[in-house]
Amino acid sequence: MYKIQTLDRISAVGLDNFPRDDYEIASEIMKPDAILVRSHDMLSMELDPTVKAVARAGAGVNNIPVKELAQKGVVVFNTPGANANAVKELVILGLLMASRPVIAANHWVNTLSGKGAEIAPLAEKGKKNYIGQEIKGKTLGVIGLGAIGAMVANTAIELGMNVIGYDPFLSVDAAWSLKSEVKHAETLDTLFAKADYITVHVPETPDTKGLICASTIKTMKDGVRIINIARGGLVNNEDVLAALNSGKISCMVTDFAAEELLNNDKVICMPHLGASTPEAEDNCAVMAVKQLRDFLETGAIKNSVNYPKCKMDTEIPAGGTRLCISHKNIPNMIAQFTSVLGGAKLNIGGMVDQNRGDIAYCMIDVDSKVEQSTIDELSKTEGVINVRPIYA
């Protein structure tokens, strides 16, 4: 019986993918095997040594001590792409709101309350103060062409926009998903110089923090419009406000509220609505549960942010054992594993070992049951973080 602890409200559609005969799920549970989380702050949590994995039902993992958990052998998963459509739709809405002042117009129309028959002619007369522009024919610069960025780019093409994308780490899958009309910028400066609208879809890292700042704004077209539904730290708010005041930037739409951005006519600020749809919550939960089940039941790792992608192409042999070994990425580890198993007179039926930076993960299939004494010997090997047996 596997025990799963939930630290937030997790979609029932996702939790229903746990077979209840084999899994116990609760917010308060002793010695959990894994944790499901959304926004709960885990940075200062003391995890039980029984925890083998943490799955975030969402893309961002800023609330999880990813590196620290890697050193403890705890695999951290996220769910990239599961909320992509919800975020894409909000970005498209942001493009439209940045172009047509519908929010300000709505606020003004509401001031006509009580004027009865005069409302229609007053509204007709006042509409000249709320003229916008069409997005068709304009150029959208998309920074980051992952699951969300690619969907935004493709939808913008369908809406008649010209699209320039920039992503130095563009994956093969993402490249195949892009419409052929999406042009690729070799540098950010090229994108900034051509874009009428800019939307960012990259994680916040030391390299991307403050990506939109005074120095990059200088290279942009006059009157550019900025949409940030990715991470608040990607934009230097003070620099953007200065550019809004000068007219260099016409409007910013952001999903990240901050004191300095409120009550500014040129800023549309939302309370982090990106993935706030029941469909996105369901999709994220379903993906998170599937990844936890695959890991706990077969040892497979997919969409981990601190361990390498790894899986065996065969099932655990009948009556056998699959050893899942987290270890340091240092020389001679495999030789030591095979030496220990050979000394125990165990036959290895299959093996795979993958690494990610200084962390590696090994899966070894043995065609018989591995005794605890052998597991203990493997665990004592220098460089091994932990050993988990899965018995067929």
Q: What kind of sheet is the major sheet?
A: 7 strands, parallel
- Tell the overall outline: elongated
User: What is the succession of H and E elements?
Assistant: EHEEEHEHHHEHEHEHEHEHEEHEHEEHE
Radius of gyration: 26 Å
Summarize the structure.
This protein is of the alpha/beta class and 392 residues long. Helices cover 31% and strands 21% of the residues. Strands 8-7-6-9-10-11-12 form a seven-stranded parallel beta sheet, sandwiched between helices. A five-stranded parallel beta sheet has the order 2-1-3-4-5.
What does this structure look like?
Strands 8-7-6-9-10-11-12 form a seven-stranded parallel sheet, sandwiched between helices. A five-stranded parallel sheet has the order 2-1-3-4-5. Strands 14-15-13-16 form a four-stranded antiparallel sheet, sandwiched between helices. Helix content is 31%, strand content 21%. The model has no long low-confidence stretch (mean pLDDT 96). The protein is elongated. α6 (147-158) links the parallel β6 and β7. It is α/β, with parallel strands linked by helices. It contains 13 helices and 16 strands.
